[in-house]
Amino acid sequence: MTQAVRHDSMRARNLEVVLGEVSRNGPLTRAALAELTGLTKSTVSKLVGDLVDAGLLAETGPARAGERGRPGVDVVLSGARIASLGLEINVDYLAVRVLDLTGAVRFAARRDRDNRGSRPKKVLAELQALAEEAITEGRRLGLDLAGAVLAVSGPVGDGVLFSAPNLGWQDVRAADLLRLPVPVELDNEANLAALGELWYGGGERDFLYVSGEVGIGAGLVVNGELFAGPRGLAGELGHVVVAPDGPACRCGGSGCLETYAGQEALLAAGRTSTVADLLAGLDRGDQVALDACAAAGRALGVALTSAVNLLDLDHIVLGGVFTPLYPWLAESVAGVLAARLGGLRAAPPVLTASRLGGDAATLGAAGRVVHRVLADPAPFLVRAQEA
Amino acid sequence: MTQAVRHDSMRARNLEVVLGEVSRNGPLTRAALAELTGLTKSTVSKLVGDLVDAGLLAETGPARAGERGRPGVDVVLSGARIASLGLEINVDYLAVRVLDLTGAVRFAARRDRDNRGSRPKKVLAELQALAEEAITEGRRLGLDLAGAVLAVSGPVGDGVLFSAPNLGWQDVRAADLLRLPVPVELDNEANLAALGELWYGGGERDFLYVSGEVGIGAGLVVNGELFAGPRGLAGELGHVVVAPDGPACRCGGSGCLETYAGQEALLAAGRTSTVADLLAGLDRGDQVALDACAAAGRALGVALTSAVNLLDLDHIVLGGVFTPLYPWLAESVAGVLAARLGGLRAAPPVLTASRLGGDAATLGAAGRVVHRVLADPAPFLVRAQEA
Predict the structure, then answer these.
(1) Cross-chain Cβ contact B155/A344 below 8 Å
(2) What's the CATH fold of domain A202-355?
């Protein structure tokens, strides 16, 4: 290893340390940063200067000419330079969202459309148009696109969406069908929504995020990190067995949670064809709709009992369609959890509705890029210098 | 931070790096170690010398007077100094095991006895006697006791065994009832057995270890590390719901796996009172015994289906009483997994019997101390110098 490489790697590490401190604990003065990081004040000043020049940090307070770099001035994350793009293909809509480095939403758009039984190429072409809108707007705001992540409802591995039964897709390299100025990463919607909830939601560091859609997925966050399993396929809550002799499931099994509490099962039990109709029925106290939710809630409670026993959960966040349905689901879910877990745990897990609702997945998708830049800012300094 | 502290912490880190390389990749020469670690040859020589003096490393090949420290000689982990003590309270026996730093078993003892409905004090007094035997033997071999870990069948947190229904114990600080020359750490048997399997068993780095006893626990290993959940209560496979309207479980729920495949349920279905009798029946082809295993295997298959969906498992190891019963369980477990997971995963998970059988928990318990010494050897150098 040459001296030059050693120096670069130390500098990259120090840039990360300084940016990380500001991200977690900012605003901070250069002096406070030196104290927190153990780096010398002159090293901190140089690093902060470079990060300010690159548009990753900004000085707060009135900046006057010739006073740049005053040691008593606070520095904060800057939203001026980095753009991250979150994309989502949902059964009912397409969505895009642009975040800056501070996590502020700079652009968001959503197109309602029915993607059931659709052709991947057609859907991705529409998403491409939406993404181009977002990128154009980002450019207009002076932002540099640092990366993009696409959320899809189904298990993902090595860039392949293995199956999205709600869309009728199988083995689709969905991200590869987009032509964007940065590579697009593909991941599971429930995992990304869980990260959205972690970074921009309730502030819990240990929870299971449940995504109720046609399928039911889940994203597990442990100590502030996503647990996705060795192949990224963890969290298939929809195929946890509720009753082994229950209704046939399209997975080939029977009695899976999805056959009781998936969107189609719920709507069938509620004798409606849309979630909006079901919600309207619930609002006016329709007994069929209420019974459908109570039954789905009991099945969800059984599956979540198994999940709590296996995963040691203290907090469960209900997302997707379970967020608007929460007032009519919560009691039966919580009732089952309390009855079944009372003898095993000091307290049954806390149940809440997602605060982000349908925004969770694109927030998590774009947030992943933000967190990647924060964890390794060096490449973005190089690009700023080259530009 | 003073210079002296900085120096000590760098030295501690370097000792760990050198010991870790030898542990993973030894035997190694000092030159190879310098290459692997990026440390200078003189630093490596000093560190290796100190580790050899402390009895943590040894030189291989014929050692001749005056030739100590020859640069071309291989160094390996030494079994001469460190002893780690693994202890286990099982429903049917007490066990102790002494490992040295190389993982070699230097002493093991087991006392068969029925601990059902026992008083903790009485059981711990017997374990104390067994532990003293182990420590005396360790001393006779010239070993220093570095630590001790006690495995118990039930959920553990903050040194408390919350409940061990097979023993009839509740909220017992079991390790505190032992008086040993080192502090004793308490942990769950299934978690420790999973670590035993990881370190001294099949060599897999991702698997679920299932411990079949009166209760059914599980230990999840992901990428070579135990996943115990935020409170250490993960892996309660015995209370995963197999059928919500199934038999009442002592946890207050119903239809938990334990009510179908726990030792008591198995023996009742097999119309025997001991596992030995059940095995004898299976050996002679007794239909009642065969049916009992097939039914337990199907329930285990359903619960493991839920576990695979939630945890993304490629490998399941059956331990505890499921190890000797494996030949009569495997087919029905694997059949359910294949039928229910075929549509969701490229291949159903591989099912194997534990290679360690009843030794897994004490191996994991003692192994945890070994791995702690390998990860932070500095305190053991200080003690050797003081002695």
Answers:
(1) yes
(2) Nucleotidyltransferase; domain 5 (3.30.420)
